[in-house]
Every structure is written in C-alpha cells, then in structure tokens.
Amino acid sequence: MFLSLSRGIDKFNEVIATAVSWALLAAVIISTVNSLMLYLFKSSSNAWLEIQWYLYGAVFLLASANTLKRDEHVRIDVIVGRFSLRTQVWIDLFGYLVFLLPVCALIFWFSLAYAEVGYLSGEIRNVGGLPAWPAMMLVPIAFLMLIVQGVSEIIKRVAFLNGRLEAGAFRKVAPTPADEIAAIKAANAPE
C-alpha cells in the first residue's frame, strides 16, 4: 500500500515538473519579446519583467520535488559514496527525517501566512507590475510538494531496507560524479 502511495506521489511530481517546464519556454519567449520591444520601440513594462520572474520562480520551486525524486539534489557523494549502499540509505533516511521534513514543514508553515498577507493586501511591488500573491503562493505549494516527496523517498528507503524494493527505484542512473563527468565528456567529444 505504501509503495503504491509512493508511486502516485512520484508520478504527480513528474507531471507537475513536466508541465512547469513549459513555463521556462514561456519565460524565454517573454524575455525575448520584451527585449525586442525595449530595443526597437523603447517600450517595456514592469508587468513583463515580473511575469518572467514569476515563471522562473515557478520552474525552480515546483520542479524541486521532482529533483528530489530523481536524486539530483546536492549531496556529498565524495564522502557518502565510500559507504555501502545500505549505509547510504540510512544516511538518506536520517537526512530526510532530521533535516528535510522539519525544515520544509517550518518553511511551509511560515510561508502560508506570508502568502495570505500578500493575497489579502493585493500587494503590487512595482508601479505597473503584477499582484505579488501568485508568486508568494508558490512558496507554500512548493514546500508542501517537497514534504510529500520526502515522505515518498522515506517509503522507498524503508522498502529497500526491508528487501521489498531495488535501489534502482530511487538512485540516479549515473550514481558517481566520475560517471557523470565521463558522460558529459562523451557528449561533448568531437565526432
């Protein structure tokens, strides 16, 4: 039952990350059009600048849970990589339970009030700009998604320790920095 829940959480965060990746394209297009308008017609607006900021923020915040799912967050592989896989999983569990979940829960809790104040006040940061509350709402949403993904990662690690799941279900394809460097070099090698 818990592994089904974990798979559902993983799928949800993959879908959100895929959808929000289109926001990056939109931000690039808006940035290009805004630059052209400024260069050609000496005309721009704060709203155009702020929508870029909102879109970049959405990409960063809403894709962070999928980054955790893909095991692509910042790690200290140089040290942890020397331990056995089982020890690495225990370190992951410790990190999720002691650091990730409590910190994300605190940020989620305090950002709710921040987003509520922004929504109720109708705050606009710059003349001619956009309301700030949509960007403010991204913070609690993103950290709630991180909490839920953290629970999914804990489920997978516990299942691995109990022999019910293979490590490939939660480990990167290229597990070592040396493998990643070799893949980058191979991709950039002249043909």
TrEMBL record:
Subcellular location as annotated: Cell inner membrane
Ranges of residues in domain Tripartite ATP-independent periplasmic transporters DctQ component: 28-158
Membrane topology: Multi-pass membrane protein
Main subcellular location: membrane
GO MF terms held by the record: transmembrane transporter activity
One Pfam family per UniProt: DctQ
InterPro entries attached to this UniProt entry: DctQ, TRAP_DctQ
Cellular component aspect of the GO annotation: plasma membrane
Source taxon at top rank: Bacteria
Keywords associated with the record: Cell inner membrane, Cell membrane, Membrane, Sugar transport, Transmembrane, Transmembrane helix, Transport
Transmembrane segments: 12-39, 51-68, 89-112, 132-155
Family of this protein: Belongs to the TRAP transporter small permease family.
Function noted in UniProt: Part of the tripartite ATP-independent periplasmic (TRAP) transport system.
Quaternary assembly: The complex comprises the extracytoplasmic solute receptor protein and the two transmembrane proteins.
Name this polypeptide is given: TRAP transporter small permease protein
